[in-house]
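To: structure subgroup
Subject: Chain for Friday's discussion

All,

I'm putting the inputs and outputs inline so they're searchable in the archive.
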Amino acid sequence: MRAWTICRRELQATFSSVVAYILLAVFLLLAGYFFYSDLVFILLVSSFTPVAGLWQWVFLDMRLVTLLILPLVTMRLFAEEKKLGTMELMWTYPVRDLEIVAGKFAAAVIFFLIMLVPTAIPCALLYSFQPFDLQPLLAAYLGLILLGIGFISCGLFVSSTTENQVVSAMVTYGILVFFWFLTWNEEAANQAALRVLLGMSLFDRFYNFTRGVIDTRDVVFFTLFISFFLFLTWQSLASRKWRGVP
């Protein structure tokens, strides 16, 4: 219950800031541009089968937009509280660290889902003109949601370690780009090492979803990735006890 209170407080703070609306507008503008350009490309190279292969292109582009926007959403979650001194005030209330983490995490996830809702409008319009199988689209959305929540969990942890929002955003970018570049230079690793790296790559795990494939192993990986960073965030807050912070 206290986690939900923190979530509502965080959402109110988010939507009372003009930054949230700017991020939302940029996200939708870029997502709309990529949808339009990818649809035009598919129409040019195919014999009027616009949906064939469309979702893979669209969602691979949307992963980049998500990577660009979400660290800017998470950078303030703890860093701003620390800079303003309100974290110390929050710790004086009867609220556990885990509830603080859960509340702020839920608020960021809800904001991300709100950003995604308008992206379904062009998909619905396309469906009204050219009905298509919904399963690949739903699989791609599931993958994007899991990927985005993974970004959020990572950004939440980084934000809990600093009071500088710019540092929080840049370090989050660095960690996420590292997980993206893991498998870029395949010649630098042997096959055994490459299989391990592929298993750790967020973006390679996401690729199956864009093809309409929901693999249980990919879902489990994202779940473990998210849980790992949430655990680190929890431990980051708990570390104040051995640092002598009340």
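Points worth raising on Friday:
Residues 18-45 form the longest helix (28 residues).
Residues 1 and 99 are 9 Å apart (CA to CA).

D.
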